[in-house]
Design goal:
two-stranded antiparallel ribbon, 4 helices
Length: 136
């Protein structure tokens, strides 16, 4: 089963990917205390609040706090051979270890190439829908 939807909340949300995708400016700043990020955090929708993006694929629900996080997920899951979380965490130049990386926290069933092929295709569809909704 596949479906996707948006939820809105008053406060800005974070997902397991937020720390890994949105880097604080300046880089030496502690993530939780930062006020500027690259790429920027998702802005609020006037009158609705901050969106959370949910994508369910075969019983597992991915949730994201920004469209940039969906793009990053597509980029990583779309590789035939998954990168090592050790390498991904080293790119972030953080003391947080590879076991804390969002990819290492995914269930095993989401890491097979067969599942990821389906997931990436549907994540692309969901991303396009979310972009349409936000630009309307």
């Amino acid at each position: 089963m596949k479906r996707h939807w948006m939820e809105f909340q008053e406060e800005r949300g974070v997902s397991p990917m937020s720390f890994w995708v949105h880097r604080p400016i300046p880089p030496s700043r502690i993530w939780i205390d930062a006020t500027e990020f690259e790429p920027p955090l998702q802005s609020s929708v006037p009158g609705m609040g901050y969106p959370l993006f949910n994508v369910e694929i075969d019983g597992f629900t991915f949730f994201f706090a920004s469209l940039d996080e969906i793009r990053a997920c597509i980029r990583v899951l779309g590789t035939k051979v998954l990168p090592r979380t050790l390498d991904l965490s080293a790119q972030r130049e953080t003391t947080m270890g590879p076991n804390g990386h969002w990819l290492s926290r995914l269930p095993a069933k989401t890491k097979s190439w067969k599942y990821r092929e389906k997931a990436v295709a549907y994540l692309n569809d969901a991303l396009a829908d979310f972009q349409k909704i936000l630009s309307a």
